[in-house]
Design goal:
Blueprint: E1 2-8, E2 11-16, E3 28-37, H1 39-45, E4 61-68, E5 80-83, E6 86-87, H2 93-96, E7 107-108, E8 125-128, H3 131-134, E9 135-137, H4 144-147, H5 153-164, E10 171-175, H6 179-190, E11 195-200, H7 203-211, E12 215-218, H8 224-230, E13 237-242, H9 247-256, E14 257-265, H10 277-282, E15 286-289, H11 294-306, E16 316-321, H12 325-333, E17 339-343
Parallel strand pairs: 10-11, 10-13, 11-12, 13-14, 14-15, 16-17
Antiparallel strand pairs: 1-2, 3-4, 3-8, 3-17, 4-5, 5-9, 6-7
Helix pairs in contact: 5-6, 5-11
Bound molecules: zinc ion (2 copies).
The site of one zinc ion (ZN) has 6 residues, from loops.
Length: 344
């Protein structure tokens, strides 16, 4: 079958790879009908996240189950499904507490040997371990490109808001309006935020956040701190979400947030980073971080998308064939797209 493989930094290739086969009775094989290109794929593309040359990449997927192991109960051959970007065992100490994202035996699709050696989903077919936990049936009437968001990007935006403890009537700020930041804007509004300040420096992304009901503030041409003060009688925002993953964004988040507020760093950090601990301490801020518990949130996210309360469809800017993956990655790398959906 055809699959998109990592070759070297800046180089992906569509090539023939072996067909996936059931290994465990809990596995399923999914015929992929739509698969997304994600910001995390770019970390691999840039060589920042290192994986083996020839490994199949991709972790966002919608398709049809074509084979299910003897222990699979929740889905069967012929079901249209979406999946989460990582797997979990469902049995370990962390899974038993609902922290599926920290499962001791977790594997992430398309991230090489370091994250569980699970081949990616930018392929014609994919093996899905522990299918009962990882897959969900696509609700009737939901398009592939919307369903695609439940197992990764919208789940992550939702997680950022849910874990921040945001309450109805709160004022939130979202820094960085890539797909996750834009989904966080929607999730904050859907969770009852009275006002959402959305900060970025790309005009189209600011305009989209505005269309989702946020107050768009340009990072340098505008004044995010003044906007936060103006919306809160000078206190600062109740919750600030850093969807960038850069020390400068984190520093701004500490400054925008009111005393006893929460800073939620959902953007990816992989290295040491200096932050103003004095500011965190004197303001009694809470700082949360880490990637999303997508398996834990996927049912709520699907329900909200099904009801139209969350709607990621405006984020889909490009549809391309799997065979054009090299072009898709180059285009995404140039920040010319928000979400590219590949069709095998
Ligand atoms: Zn992703
Ligand atoms: Zn586990």
């Amino acid at each position: 079958m055809r699959a998109v493989t990592f070759q070297a930094p800046g180089e992906v290739l569509v090539e023939e790879v072996p067909e996936p086969e059931l290994i465990d009775p809990g596995d399923a094989i999914v015929q992929i009908e739509a698969t997304g290109v994600c910001g995390s794929d770019l970390h691999i593309y840039h060589g920042r996240v290192q994986i083996e040359p020839g490994f199949t990449i991709g972790h966002e997927y919608v398709g049809t189950v074509i084979e299910a192991g003897a222990d699979v109960r929740e889905v069967q051959a012929g079901d249209r499904v979406l999946g989460c970007f990582q797997t979990a065992c469902g049995r370990c100490w962390f899974c038993r507490r609902g922290w599926f994202h920290k499962c001791d035996a977790s594997r992430t699709f398309g991230h090489g040997a370091a994250l569980g050696a699970l081949q990616g989903t930018q392929a014609e077919r994919a093996l899905v371990p522990n299918a009962d936990l990882v897959l969900r049936k696509v609700p009737a009437g939901m398009s592939d490109e919307v369903a695609l968001f439940a197992g990764d990007v919208m789940g992550t935006g939702y997680h950022a808001v849910a874990e921040s403890g945001l309450r109805a009537g709160d004022v939130a700020a979202v820094l960085g309006l890539g797909p996750v930041g834009l989904c966080a804007v929607q999730a904050a509004k859907a969770s009852g935020a009275a006002h959402v300040i959305a900060v970025d420096s790309v005009a189209e992304r600011l305009a989209m956040a505005e269309s989702f009901g946020a107050e768009a503030v340009h990072l340098s041409e505008g004044d995010p701190r003044a906007a936060a003060r103006a919306a809160t009688e000078g206190r600062g925002v109740d919750v600030c979400i850093d969807a960038v993953g850069h020390p400068k964004a984190l520093d701004l988040a500490l400054r925008l947030t009111r005393k006893c507020g929460t800073v939620q760093a959902i953007g990816v950090y992989a290295e040491r980073c200096e932050l103003h601990m004095g500011l965190l301490w004197i303001k009694s801020l809470q700082l949360c971080a880490g990637h999303a518990n997508v398996i834990g949130h996927v049912d709520r996210v699907l329900a909200m998308m099904s009801a139209g309360v969350l709607d990621p469809s405006p984020l889909v800017t490009h549809h391309m064939a799997l065979d054009d993956a090299a072009e898709a990655y180059a285009l995404y790398d140039r920040r010319e797209a928000l979400k590219i959906v590949l069709k095998p």
